[in-house]
């Protein structure tokens, strides 16, 4: 298969947002308002500016809110929608998207629709071109950790451990991946329709030495809990 040199972005935007329901409950979590606009607008704009050429949105809960707002394109970039008829988990959503995706794209990126992480795509791709792993994950170094499990990497950059408990400086999963779509679609065939990409797939890939960790220092915020949602506006403002 001849690869298309363009970049395809898959955004996981189908979650229920249970932890955020106390402050945002009328829209899907990625549509939570930030500075008068849906968070998802800022997220898509960021990745468009990084050079993505096609965006697929995995949608479910109150999906019509997303479709009605964005339509079939956003800032000149075509949008595709893949529907979750029932909650599929992150793994099931990815599998669902890859089943209908154009697998010729050189770089297929996957990001969480509720996470702001300023990943430099050019640096990420340059690193991947020399590492040759079928699945790569962007890691974020944080200090004073009291929320996330840490991730370990070996001397070659391959991820070799999850679940590290460390309240000091820690590498964490930033929720941004670049994958070989043909490899991953075939790999996920053994999984059921609903499963967790983080728990069920990434740990297995790491054990098989198939998962690479790329470290970046960009601003990071997961809006999944009210405290971080309240802070994301000031973080986005620094980028804009």
Give a short overview:
By secondary structure, the protein is an alpha/beta fold. It has helices at about 40-50, 65-70, 90-100, 120-130, 180-185, 195-205, 225-240; strands at about 5-15, 35, 35-40, 55-60, 75, 75-85, 105-110, 115, 135-140, 150-155, 160-165, 170-180, 210-215, 220.
Give structural notes:
- The chain is an alpha/beta fold and 240 residues long.
- The chain has one domain: Spore Coat Polysaccharide Biosynthesis Protein SpsA, Chain A, CATH 3.90.550.
- 31% of the residues lie in helices and 32% in strands.
- A hairpin with a 2-residue loop joins strand 5 (73-74) and strand 6 (77-83).
- It is globular and about 45 Å long.
- The model has no long low-confidence stretch (mean pLDDT 89).
The tally of domains stands at: 1
Compute the number of helices.
Answer: 7
Based on Cα principal axes, name the global outline: globular
**What are the low-pLDDT stretches, counting only 5+ consecutive residues below 50?**
none
CATH-defined topology: Spore Coat Polysaccharide Biosynthesis Protein SpsA, Chain A
> For this structure, what is the CATH homologous superfamily?
Spore Coat Polysaccharide Biosynthesis Protein SpsA, Chain A
Strand content: 25-35%
At CATH's second level, what is the architecture? Alpha-Beta Complex
Q: How is the biggest beta sheet arranged?
A: 8 strands, mixed
> What is the chain-wise order of helices and strands?
EEEHEHEEHEEHEEEEHHEEH
First-last Cα distance? 39 Å
User: How many strand segments?
Assistant: 14
Average of the residue pLDDT scores: 89
* Largest beta sheet: strand ordering: 5-6-4-1-7-12-9-13
What Rg do the Cα atoms give?
A: 17 Å
């Amino acid at each position: 298969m001849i690869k298309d040199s363009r970049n395809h972005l898959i955004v996981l935007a189908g979650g229920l947002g249970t932890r955020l329901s106390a402050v945002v409950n009328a829209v899907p979590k990625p549509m939570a308002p930030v500075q008068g606009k849906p968070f998802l607008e800022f997220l898509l704009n960021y990745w468009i500016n990084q050079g993505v050429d096609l965006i697929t949105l995995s949608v479910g809960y109150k999906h019509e809110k997303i479709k009605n707002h964005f339509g079939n394109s956003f800032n000149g970039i075509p949008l595709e929608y893949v529907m979750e008829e029932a909650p599929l988990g992150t793994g099931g959503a990815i599998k669902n998207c890859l089943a209908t995706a154009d697998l010729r794209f050189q770089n297929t990126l996957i990001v969480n629709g509720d996470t702001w992480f300023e990943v430099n795509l050019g640096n990420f791709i340059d690193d991947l071109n020399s590492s040759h792993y079928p699945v790569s994950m962007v890691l974020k170094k944080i200090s004073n950790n009291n929320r996330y499990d840490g991730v370990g990497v070996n001397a070659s950059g391959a991820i070799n451990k999850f679940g590290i408990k460390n309240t000091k400086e820690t590498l964490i999963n930033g929720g941004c991946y670049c994958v070989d779509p043909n490899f991953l679609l075939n790999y996920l065939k053994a999984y059921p329709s609903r499963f967790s990409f983080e728990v069920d797939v990434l740990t297995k890939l790491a054990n098989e030495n198939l998962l690479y960790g790329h470290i970046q220092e960009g601003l990071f915020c997961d809006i999944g809990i009210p405290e971080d949602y309240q802070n994301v506006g000031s973080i986005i403002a620094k980028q804009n």
